[in-house]
Write a structure and sequence with these properties.
Low-confidence stretches: none
Strand content: 15-25%
Helix content: 25-40%
Mean pLDDT: 92
Number of helices: 9
Number of strands: 10
Radius of gyration: 18 Å
Distance between the termini: 46 Å
Length: 251
């Protein structure tokens, strides 16, 4: 697998007797944008977290940027340096400024000198439209601004792959667009991205491929326009009908 891409083969994940992932096979090529869609509880977020081993699979292999993440001997810290992750909640340090939030991991994990880390952080804050916000604290920012700081923080670690776990689900409707705009620019710049999302417009317009999951399995996958515009599987059709036309759903 080239740098920036990843592959999953035969992935199973259970919590006690609850099997959440039931043999997932999925690969993402370098520079590809893939969106995971599906109902809550379908295993999307668990799959995402298995990519960088925030969750440990019970069975299967995960290869990320040349690292076999499921090898007991793998250097997880080295592997995770290639992977940035943005969560539903922003997970910023409330006692640190925006600039400090974006430099602390650089200095502690990558060993960058403070001046170099600050320069990288400022560059990435500008990329997400937050130039001039460096000295503010998280409680002085809107939800959308906090999520953009979280993206800048992840980018400051120079990842080859970005994972997004429903990054707009905790935002007010008015601020969703500013985060999606940043993600669109990252995709256009060639960043490899795996995105769990309920934003069908974003998935249709930005994703190279859409994967529909339900019940811990991949039901259907293909080009975004095909899956969202003309899905083949009845379960995919039903899900998208409910998501795209919620007022027309029969009770």
């Amino acid at each position: 697998m080239q740098a920036g891409g990843f592959s999953i083969s035969g992935l199973h994940k259970s919590y006690g007797s609850n099997e959440v992932l039931k043999g997932i096979d999925l690969s993402v090529a370098p520079g590809e944008v893939v969106c995971l869609i599906g109902p809550s509880g379908s295993g999307k977020s668990t799959l995402l977290r298995c990519v960088n081993l925030l969750e440990t699979p019970n069975q299967g292999t995960v290869t990320v940027s040349g690292f076999d993440a499921t090898d007991p001997e793998v250097d997880l810290n080295a592997m995770r340096r290639h992977v940035g992750m943005v969560f539903q909640q922003f997970n910023l340090f409330p006692h640190l400024s925006v600039l400090q939030n974006c430099t602390v991991a650089q200095t502690k994990v990558l060993g960058r000198p403070q001046a170099g880390a600050a320069a990288v952080a400022r560059e990435n804050l500008a990329r997400v439209g937050l130039e001039g916000f460096e000295e503010r604290y998280p409680d002085q920012l809107s939800g959308g601004q906090q999520q953009r700081v979280a993206i800048a923080r992840a980018l400051s670690m120079d990842p080859q792959l970005m994972l997004f776990d429903e990054p707009t689900s905790a935002l007010d409707p008015e601020t969703v667009g500013e985060v999606l705009s940043v993600m669109r620019r990252l995709a256009a710049a060639g960043m490899t991205m795996l995105v769990v999302t309920h934003e069908m417009g974003f998935a249709r317009d930005v994703a190279d491929r859409v994967v529909f999951m339900d019940g811990g399995v991949v039901v259907e996958e293909g080009p975004a326009e095909q899956i969202i515009g003309s899905p083949a599987q009845p379960r995919t059709q039903d899900f998208l009908r409910r998501v795209l036309n919620p007022t027309e759903v029969d009770l």
